[in-house]
Amino acid sequence: MAARKSSRRGAGAITDVPGIEVGHFTDRRRPTGCTVVIAREGAVGGVDVRGAAPGTRETDLLAPTNLVDRVHGILLAGGSAWGLDAATGVVQWLEERGIGFPVGTARLPLVPGAVLFDLLVGDASIRPDAQSGYRACELASAKAPAEGNVGAGTGAAVGKVFGIERAMKGGIGTASVTVEGITVGALIACNALGDVIDPDTGEVIAGARTRNGKSLMDTRRALLRGEPPKPLLAGTNTTIGVIATDAVITKVQASRLATMGHDGLARSINPVHTMSDGDTLFMLGTGRAGKSPGMMVLGTMVAEAVSIAVARAARAAQGITVGKLHLPAAGDLS
Fold it and tell me: Over 70: is that where the pLDDT of 308 sits?
């Protein structure tokens, strides 16, 4: 039996999935921003929230037992709960173009979303709003989206178990995997409490630094040998993202695939799904391929794409200095 043909590992973007567009808005007044994933024709949606401190919008409608099975966009944003305001701009932009769920005299765009906490970096009074979400839509396209310090990843930081002053710059990353004509893509904004891990080698890419700030601490090993973590405020972290496929899937399957996407987070972030993270993954199915390889293959592809996207988020990030806070990037440490 011939081996399955797959794409080169680490290549691609979520926009390799036909029917998916991505736009970033980056607010340069301070490091923050938002990212929108648009499915103009609608996409079957699912979600899985694993972190204990999430900030989300309209996730209940994605439950398999609820009525609506297609959504038109997903918002990812910085700014903690305030950043959810950006979804209003996304809804407005979609409505102006006649995109949405028919409700008699109008079409209602359905835009679930999730936020991450980036308020420790710069002026916390500056956060994404409705205008930010609208602008992200204006900039959306089917081209491969920028990675690193853009959109929802602009103010992201990783490795905060021993304090933000010993953390490093996080960001946003994307990847895709194709098997026998079916594509799965992921877009991940990584603002994790834990370290970012290379999913192939197990080596730490970015995370908590030693006291002198010159090398990586390796949070997992540090905690296991008894190093005490710094007291943490719940919700001050979070990794959020969107997974998409052109395979034909049901709403129940979308929910299960969102769950399997968290396997990718577990391979590439340690610790993950903590009491101080609000880790949330959305799943979209455009059905453009007209077929499905089955849930075993799709689930494997989903976890793979997510883990690669997380690693790319850390590797694409650039170091920043805001006031007295310096967050180096993975490429800054020797």
Answer: yes
- Say how many Å lie between the first and final Cα of the chain, rounded: 46
| Average pLDDT value for the chain | 94
CB 134 within 8 A of CB 87: no
CB 121 within 8 A of CB 326: no
Contact 35, 189 (CB under 8 A): yes
Q: 120: closest CA among 30, 188, 216?
A: 30
Tell the burial category of 174 from Cβ atoms under 10 Å away from its Cβ (0-12, 13-18, 19+): buried
Cα 206 vs. chain centroid, distance in angstroms?
A: 17
Write b or e for each residue in 31-50: b if 16 or more Cβ atoms lie within 10 A of its Cβ, otherwise e: bbbbbbbbbbebbbbbbbbb
Domain ranges of the chain: 14-332
Exposed/middle/buried for residue 323 (C-beta within 10 Å: 0-12, 13-18, 19+): exposed
Half-sphere exposure of 26 (CA within 13 A, CB side): 16
* For residues 119-137, average pLDDT: 96
Q: How far apart are CA 191 and CA 132, in angstroms?
A: 20
Q: Who wins on pLDDT, 52 or 6?
A: 52
User: What one-letter code names the amino acid at 85?
Assistant: D
Closest by alpha carbon to 193, among 151, 158, 150? 158
Measured CA to CA, the distance from residue 151 to residue 141 in angstroms comes to 14
DSSP count for the chain of H helices, then E strands: 5, 18
Fold of 14-332: L-amino peptidase D-ALA esterase/amidase (3.60.70)
330: closest CA among 309, 307, 312, 306? 312
Distance in angstroms (rounded) separating the CA atoms of residues 73 and 113: 8
Question: CA 117 to CA 80: how far, in whole Å?
Answer: 4
